[in-house]
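On clarity, I found the account of how folds are encoded harder to follow than it need be. Since the whole study asks how a given chain folds, the encoding of that fold should be made plain. For illustration, here is how one protein appears when written out as sequence plus structure tokens:

:::
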Amino acid sequence: MLRTQFEEELDKLHNQFYAMGTEVLAQINRTVRAFVSHDRELAQEIIEKDEIVNNYELKLEKKSLEIIALQQPVAHDLRTVITVLKASSDVERMGDHALSIAQATIRMKGEVRLKDVEEEISKMGRAVKLMVEETMHAYIKGDDEKAREIAASDKDIDEHYNRIQALAIEQIKENPEAIIAGKDYFQVLTYLERIGDYATNICEWVVYLKTGKIIEL
């Protein structure tokens, strides 16, 4: 394969990965909106679209392995393929957590809800969405310095998690009828926190792509 053709194949990998990230970003936004607005129809749509993300990962994995096997890339080219292969797995897991939030939306039908807690979950969801969005931009630009900054912001997601969990516990004590909903609140908080962790993982792969160093951010 000519060098120009090979570079085109790498560009396709980049673009497909970015498209996958954009799809998951939309799912994160919609699933949090569905949860706090109790929109079970929107939640069901998200569940039905989960296959789109899974298919992206399968295609990226297949294409990455084909390039490694047939082209035997070295140096930066190999890092590019490895980054896509690893980072797409992290994005797929983000999609899994978005799916789980949608399932919680449907499961909570008829339960006593806590408005203050849900408003805070909405804020946390926006912060997570922004983190994922910035991560994808850092990836497409190959900006390792920005990736480091984004990874550092994961502590803000953790702060959201701890604060909202404490708020939920306090309000459930005052309103014991909300204890069933509380279980789902804690799970949704965990799903959002884990999405932030996977965004950090992708930031680490951006640093690897640019520098060749595997580090923990």
Notes: The radius of gyration is 19 Å. The mean pLDDT is 93.
